[in-house]
Task: inverse folding
């Protein structure tokens, strides 16, 4: 696993102290225990203080869940370094090695581990757990909609499932590439030994893990959150205490995304290898940085809106309640100021990952490298000025319809550039159709449909018909599931050998691919048709005139779920018993393929020196061999 | 081959988990202690002034959903003592194209509607209902003004309402169907009494049921909490909401 | 230890000498893609025309007519763009797919095209022109909808959990169904008593949210007699799925009868409906 000694290095360390012994026992189980104990304690205290008050339930829920999150992170070790620092204890190099998981084998995956590759792997598992939860809830929705007047779920249960399906998938897609790959792969791509802030990196994953139980727990509180993932006020102010748990989930998640985003940006700014100039950064690195930066812009709006939501609910303020002078439009604005950039926080990293895939499997340099970086930046810049297109039909600021139509339609120019760059890279390439490349072609098909259906929604007169209707549902599933998730799947299959050390079983993977590809079209084409015919979104029962479309869509959704399960099986079985992967199975040129597999601690046995960009396929000179490895005296390694 | 079997087994296992979650969610739906409340058919061959099947259905609204009614039935299994509820069931079943006579016994107190639109009766035979009470009168609103329970009514004061029984068909069943009956408040102040001896008002009305299908009913009196007093009990399925199956 | 680093010189030799695109080959590529593009564009245009007329509800108002024509025009504009992406990606699979040397060895490197200023420029220009077209079309449709006609009929729309009701202030009439006269512009003043709802008379092609404490306005001019549905388009809680109302576009005479039936005096009904008749030319 590593060339460093695996012997416990406990002398002259914090770890040899009494506190250190506690430190060594910390793992996910102690975290859960600490979280539960602290939550129970705070519940008892707040309940006795606020009991009988007008907002007792909300106040108790907020305090208790905050205590759970703090307790969980205390128990896993998020605050260890801070506590040592406050006590005036310096951590030694050996402490750092322990924190990075040296000598702990597989147990380090259950611990607060600062190794970026462990964090990346933890993210990958979390993403699959969230997708499974979200997918299961999608199956509930589609089962309810199999027949027009089904009573499989009560309307209340249906609404709460719609809500948590949405938020679960949004969280999962935000972290699906920026979590696993911007952590595991991106530092190696730029020649770094780890992320700039390894402890914050570990914090970002454990904080989001502590948020997930709050989200799932909403089902057990007052019948769930009934307001949809957009939780429009004042409907969400009207909801029961489940909405408090939902708000805490979001606040905690925003902390995680913020920490992760800062870490990504600082890593790329400061940790690049010698010769890794900005002009030589792989596209995926740019995508991670731009996605992370956009998240830093977008997420605070979500934090603020959720804090004021809690204030309205638990303390009787009236930011959003009309009877107290508030207005729901405030919520809708702050929500979409987060919500639209967030779509591109989701989309940009996987698309950037996919461009790495295309260069490798077309055996060509990325077409118009600078133009595509500019396109990503342009999308990010424009995306912060388009939010009110979600509000065309709310009645808010009708005179701004024109400006927001303009910015929204302008964004199709940089988005079009992405298509140009993909087509340009494929142009006259030597197309090597391995599994990742299958997903690239599926992306092209899905995303062009998702993009074109978006132009109807960007146009006020047409949006007046389509808003709030199944057409919108189909549109954003085409872009987020058919676009971002499929691009993420391309990245996953591409980097799987490096992450797991095994080759992916492509035979099973291709079976999964074809099921996903076909079932996806069936599921969402049927929803486009239902929407065009006028079926509203988020309804538990519907007019029988939409029965055929919904029946077909439900069957497609079942098949789609099976497709993803088969892909998951291919991943699991390959990870356990696949054939060992060589360091560079794709003969790719980016740096992560030029370190050994499995990747050792601190990645590089010798420091790389970069002499060209990583896309010199078919070229001569430095571009063809763009990296050399320099003797690193400090590490005692031999080149 | 081994991996094919493995894949099938893996998918079956995960699908099983999904199915179990599904079962968990269906069990969350409210089931009353007595199941569906079916209308009884009387011998009369003429009803609602026409030759048609006559059906009767009786149920009540209670101030305390965790309580038991005089027949010993749970008002709402697992109910909340601070929440009112229709009971002993929220799922009703009647025959199609029949004259359905509903008798609703109202035990709960009340107040003012959000929307005076619901103070008048719509969709019953003659747009009227009949009320009888074991109380001669109640001090309603405007405050201090006495409100007498008297026979047949089409409209009551919008601030003398206990609950409403408001019903429409599910989309695509019977688009024109709309029934709304305001039930006058019973007794004064906070009424936590669910038994026959308690202050109560019994409202009787008839309507002609539509074609086969499911109809959804709910209460339009704001008896919940939070925004518009439509949170809590009003938004929790099964207390102030339910279905009528026309078979 | 050096064995842990793949031998980079091996990759380097693959690429020597540098590959150059073959001009003749390029001409063939362009020709086939152009042919494929034309065929796919034709299919796209046919699909646009067919799907727009088959799926969208028939027009009952000038606004719904605008929705139908906007969807059709945007689909026609998008057809060549979609066709181009599909034509090139399909062709890349058919013509440029290379068999790898062996299972684990990639095909030889392709000619390194690092960019093409002309292609990028044309692409940018085309997409900018399309965007300007979409914007101009959308704004002209939108501004046409903002015109207020004299003597419009005002209907107050109230949404609440989970019922719509409609008030005709001129005739002092309340109704659970929405009845509007043919040919006369109707102004809907929409509000809510509790949470946000979405007032969406589906076949009239307009919608606006009903916000508590606020009044929002939309206008439609019905052009065809018939039945339509009013839906709630904004998730509003428990019975959102059942929050709908029935709507009818009727003649001025029938509108007068409707008002009378709902309790307006004959004189008021006639007055309110007369305005409708004058404007609708009935």
Result:
């Amino acid at each position: 696993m590593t060339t460093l000694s695996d012997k416990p290095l406990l002398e002259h360390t914090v770890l040899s102290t009494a506190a250190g012994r506690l430190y060594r026992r910390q793992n996910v189980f102690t975290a859960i225990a600490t979280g539960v104990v602290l939550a129970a304690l705070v519940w008892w205290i707040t309940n006795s203080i606020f009991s009988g008050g007008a907002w007792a339930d909300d106040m108790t829920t907020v305090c208790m869940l905050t205590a759970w999150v703090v307790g969980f992170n205390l128990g896993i070790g998020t605050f260890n370094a801070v506590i040592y620092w406050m006590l005036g204890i310096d951590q030694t190099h050996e402490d750092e090695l322990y924190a990075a998981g040296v000598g702990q084998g597989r147990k380090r995956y259950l611990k607060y581990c600062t190794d970026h590759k462990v964090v990346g792997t933890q993210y990958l598992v979390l993403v699959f757990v969230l997708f499974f939860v979200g997918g299961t809830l999608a199956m509930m929705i589609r089962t309810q909609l199999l027949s027009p007047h089904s009573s499989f779920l009560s309307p209340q249960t249906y609404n709460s499932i719609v809500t948590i399906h949405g938020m679960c998938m949004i969280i999962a897609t935000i972290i699906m590439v920026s979590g696993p790959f911007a952590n595991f792969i991106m530092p190696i791509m730029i020649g770094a030994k780890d992320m700039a802030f390894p402890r914050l990196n570990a914090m970002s994953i454990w904080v989001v893990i502590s948020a997930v139980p709050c989200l799932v727990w909403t089902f057990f509180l007052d019948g769930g959150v009934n307001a949809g993932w957009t939780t429009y006020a004042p409907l969400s102010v009207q909801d029961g205490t489940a909405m408090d748990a939902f708000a805490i989930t979001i606040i905690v998640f925003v902390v995680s995304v913020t920490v992760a985003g800062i870490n990504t940006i600082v890593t790329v700014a400061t940790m690049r290898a010698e010769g890794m100039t900005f002009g030589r950064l792989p596209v995926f690195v740019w995508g991670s940085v731009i996605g992370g930066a956009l998240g830093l812009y977008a997420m605070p709006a979500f934090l603020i809106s959720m804090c004021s939501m809690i204030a309205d609910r638990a303390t009787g303020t009236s930011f959003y309640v009309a009877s107290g002078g508030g207005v729901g439009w405030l919520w809708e604005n702050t929500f979409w100021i987060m919500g639209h950039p967030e779509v591109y926080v989701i989309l940009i990293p996987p698309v950037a990952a996919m461009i790495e895939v295309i260069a490798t499997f077309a055996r060509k340099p990325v077409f118009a490298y600078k133009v595509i970086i500019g396109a990503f930046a342009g999308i990010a810049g424009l995306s912060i000025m388009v939010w009110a297109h979600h509000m065309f039909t709310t009645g808010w600021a009708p005179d701004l319809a024109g400006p927001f139509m303009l910015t929204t339609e302008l964004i199709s120019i940089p988005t079009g550039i992405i298509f140009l760059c993909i087509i340009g890279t494929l142009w006259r390439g030597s197309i090597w159709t391995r599994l990742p490349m299958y997903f690239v072609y599926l992306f092209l098909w899905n995303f062009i449909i998702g993009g074109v259906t978006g132009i109807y929604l960007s146009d006020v007169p047409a949006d007046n018909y389509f808003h709030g209707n199944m057409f919108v549902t189909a549109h954003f599933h085409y872009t987020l599931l058919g676009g971002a998730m499929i691009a993420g799947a391309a990245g996953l299959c591409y980097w799987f050998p490096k992450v797991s050390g095994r080759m992916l079983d492509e035979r099973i993977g291709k079976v999964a691919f074809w099921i996903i590809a076909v079932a996806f079209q069936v599921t969402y084409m049927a929803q486009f048709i239902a929407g065009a015919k006028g079926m509203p979104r988020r309804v538990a029962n519907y007019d029988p005139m939409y029965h055929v479309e919904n029946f077909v869509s439900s069957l497609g959704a079942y098949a789609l779920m099976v497709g993803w399960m088969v892909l998951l099986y291919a991943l699991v079985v390959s990870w356990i018993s696949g054939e060992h992967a060589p360091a560079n199975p794709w003969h790719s040129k980016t740096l992560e393929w030029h370190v050994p597999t499995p990747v050792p601690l601190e990645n590089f046995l010798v420091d790389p020196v970069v002499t060209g960009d990583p896309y010199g396929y078919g070229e001569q000179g430095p571009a063809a061999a763009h990296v050399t490895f320099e003797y690193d005296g400090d590490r005692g390694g031999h080149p | 081959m081994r991996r094919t079997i493995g894949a099938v087994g893996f998918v079956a296992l995960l699908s099983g988990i999904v199915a179990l979650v599904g079962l968990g969610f269906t069990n969350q739906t409210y089931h009353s202690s007595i199941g569906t409340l079916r209308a009884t058919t009387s011998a009369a061959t003429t009803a609602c002034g026409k030759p048609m099947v006559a059906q009767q259905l009786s149920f009540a609204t209670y101030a305390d959903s965790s309580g038991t009614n005089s027949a010993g039935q749970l008002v709402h299994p697992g109910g909340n003592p601070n929440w009112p509820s229709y009971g002993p069931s929220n799922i009703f079943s009647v025959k199609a194209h029949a004259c359905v006579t509903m008798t609703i016994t109202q035990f709960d107190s009340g107040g003012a509607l959000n929307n005076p639109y619901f103070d008048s009766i719509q969709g019953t035979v003659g747009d009227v209902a009949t009320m009888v009470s074991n109380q001669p009168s109640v001090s309603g609103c405007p405050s201090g003004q006495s409100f007498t329970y008297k026979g047949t009514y089409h409209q009551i004061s919008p601030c003398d309402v206990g609950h409403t029984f408001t019903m429409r068909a599910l989309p695509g069943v019977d688009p024109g169907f709309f029934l709304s009956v305001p039930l006058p408040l019973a007794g004064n102040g906070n009424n936590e009494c669910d038994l026959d001896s308690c202050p109560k008002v019994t409202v009787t009305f008839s309507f002609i049921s539509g074609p086969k299908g499911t109809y959804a009913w709910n209460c339009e009196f704001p008896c919940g909490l939070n925004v518009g007093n439509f949170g809590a009990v009003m938004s929790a399925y099964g207390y102030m909401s339910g279905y009528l199956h026309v078979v | 230890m050096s064995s842990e680093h793949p031998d980079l010189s091996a990759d380097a030799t693959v690429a020597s000498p540098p590959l150059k695109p073959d001009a003749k080959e390029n001409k063939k590529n362009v020709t086939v893609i152009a042919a494929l593009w034309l065929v796919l564009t034709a299919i796209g245009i046919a699909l646009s025309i067919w799907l727009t007329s088959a799926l969208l509800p028939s027009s009952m108002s000038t606004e719904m007519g605008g929705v139908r024509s906007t969807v059709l025009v945007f689909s026609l504009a998008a057809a060549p763009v979609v066709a181009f992406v599909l034509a090139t990606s399909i062709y890349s699979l058919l013509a440029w797919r290379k068999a790898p040397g062996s299972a684990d060895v990639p095909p030889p490197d392709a000619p390194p095209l690092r960019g093409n200023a002309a292609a990028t420029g044309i692409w940018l220009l085309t997409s900018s022109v399309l965007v300007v077209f979409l914007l101009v079309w959308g704004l002209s449709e939108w501004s046409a909808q903002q015109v207020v006609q004299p003597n419009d009929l005002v209907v107050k729309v109230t949404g609440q959990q989970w019922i719509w009701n409609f008030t005709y202030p001129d005739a002092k009439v309340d109704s659970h169904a929405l009845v509007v006269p043919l040919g006369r512009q109707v102004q809907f003043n929409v509000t809510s008593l509790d949470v946000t709802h979405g007032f969406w008379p589906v076949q009239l092609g307009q919608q606006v949210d009903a916000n508590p404490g606020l009044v929002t306005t939309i206008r439609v001019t019905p052009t065809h007699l018939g039945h339509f549905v009013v839906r709630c388009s904004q998730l509003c809680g428990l019975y959102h799925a059942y929050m709908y109302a029935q709507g009818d576009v009727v003649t001025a005479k029938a509108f007068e009868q409707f008002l009378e039936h709902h309790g307006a005096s004959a004189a008021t009904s006639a007055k309110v409906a007369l305005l409708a008749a004058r404007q609708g030319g009935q």
In short: The longest strand of chain A covers residues 607-610. Chain A is about 65% helix and 0% strand. Residues 12-102 of chain A form one domain.
